[in-house]
Amino acid sequence: MSALRLNGGLLLLLLAAMAAGLWFGETHLSAAQLQSAFTDPASPPGEILWRIRAPRTVAAAVVGAALGLAGAVMQGLLRNPLADPGVLGVSGGAGLGAALSISLGLGAFAGAVEGAALVAALVTGVVLTALAARFREPETLILFGVALSAFTGALTSLVFNFSPSPVTLAEVFSWLLGSVANRDWSDIGRELAPMAVGAGLCAYAARGLVMLSLGEETAAMSGLPMARLRAAAVAGASLLTGAAVAMAGIVGFVGLAAPHLVRAGAGADPGRVLAPSAISGALLLVLADLAARVIPTDLELKLGVVTALFGAPLFAMIAWRAARSWRG
Amino acid sequence: MSLAFALEAASARRGGGEVLHAASLAGRPGEVLGVVGANGAGKTTLLRVALGLQPLSGGAARLAGRDVGRLSEPARAALAAYLPQERRVGWNLPAWRVASLGAAHRPPAEARARAQAALARVGLAELAGRGVLDMSGGERGRVLLARVLAARSPLIMADEPAAGLDPDAQLLALELLREEAARGACVVLTLHDLSLAVRACDRLAVLSQGRLVADGPPREALTPAVLAEAFRLEGRIEETAAGLVVAARRRRAHDTRASASAGLSAKPAP
What we know:
The complex is a heterodimer. Chain A is mainly alpha-helical. Chain A is built from 13 helices and no strands. Chain A has a single domain (3-326), classed as ABC transporter involved in vitamin B12 uptake, BtuC (Orthogonal Bundle), CATH 1.10.3470.10. In chain A, helix 5 packs antiparallel against helix 6 and helix 11 (254-266) runs parallel beside helix 13. Chain A is globular, with a radius of gyration of 20 Å. The relative contact order of chain A is 0.17. By secondary structure, chain B is an alpha/beta fold. Chain B contains 10 helices and 12 strands. In chain B, helix 4 packs across helix 5 (137-151) and helix 5 (137-151) runs parallel beside helix 6. Chain A binds chain B through residues 79, 210-215, 217-218, 220-226, 267-270, 324-328, and chain B through 48, 51, 53, 73-74, 76-78, 80-82, 84, 86, 88-94, 97-98, 101, 104-105, 131, 133-134, 144, 147.
């Protein structure tokens, strides 16, 4: 399938899903109300549509795109189909930053928790980029990632341990479960800059990923500036993941599954999987958020819970079908 | 004539020990140089330090007269192509795509044309569209060889290009590498099969425990004494109807002791 057709088709699906995201919600909007929402954004239906549903749907799309792209870059860099944006510990770092800031009572200040999550993700990203420059083998990087994940997880547990009140504890936990509910345009705007930089770095790194599929030494002899490309891939994926966690908490499986969903259409070239992975990640998360809203439960389902519940079986199914192309 | 590569008293360490000791070796355009030696003798290390993929602990390594450590990545890629022993491919890329990566510095259409031509040379034109992970190990090895051929590099370093190939494909691979030398490239290859080595190479460099113990035309390099020291073999090169072969058998334990006490020297040939 040509890249244009694949990306175009996915974009159309994404737009349809986003339209559905505006349509469905807790409050049913009639056709007349929808019309008034478009003609008068200040009307009550307009408020629901433009201040609640639209930013929420856009946040889901943006976070999904960031995670899908980061996942595709990680899988290409580590030559591992099981890699996801969190594999190197960036999600864990961002989660720790958020947990720490909430338990320190910074939740009252707008953007403080998100800022702390992003800063913590950046610190983890800088550590990883330095490690990636020193150790070329993907296996080594994965081991460092596991260690970083475990360490940030342990520190997050420590935050739980010293949490001043059950209310704070619940707040941290709820944040970590992942959600795009109650996100406003400023929340989205804040993370767009780091995401754009991250996406740019990933696009720059794309041409190195296909070389890496032939091994470190072949890539090193290919004439490409591999050290720079590798650093760009790690830094870009870290920025994307950090900004995504800052906007929506920890949302699993999207970054893992999105590249697999498109690989059959995009081909095996890890550089060409990037763009469709971003779009399919956005599509997955918009649909997951829609499911979180329309599945009738007393308390709204958390986005991270939905992606894990639906994502895990879906991923197993993809893995079953794709197992052939993973042999090596 | 300028040298395609040169090692000057090159030493290298790995895992705390020295695996290459002051090796001096050079390759000229148009020649096929075989690097042979027992397992762990330092063959791969020699190729890697020559290409700047592994740091030297002493001496110097040059490509086309220039210090390999000071070459930019594109400059190094323009001077040498490398076929590592590692045959793993991370994703199920089609064969033509893998082969075209050898010419990644060329425009895409030219890279693809070169890839198709190289795949035809290794006898895989029909399988150009097939994923390399859907191929046998030997077919994948030929695709990776095609990648190196597509580079049309002035220096080709191939680590065990015949490994894992059937006898016919082994001969084809060596024939293609000889063709590259005929077009003017310097071809350096490591081989385990000594009979293949004496037939395919213009010159052999023999490594034993990280030291270069012989360097010259096959008959001069692989003397019975060198076979004994570098390979613990008792035998010699013989002329047969099929060309040169190395006729040898394992040395018995007391022979090894005898040769050790006789102090077979490790003097590199001039």
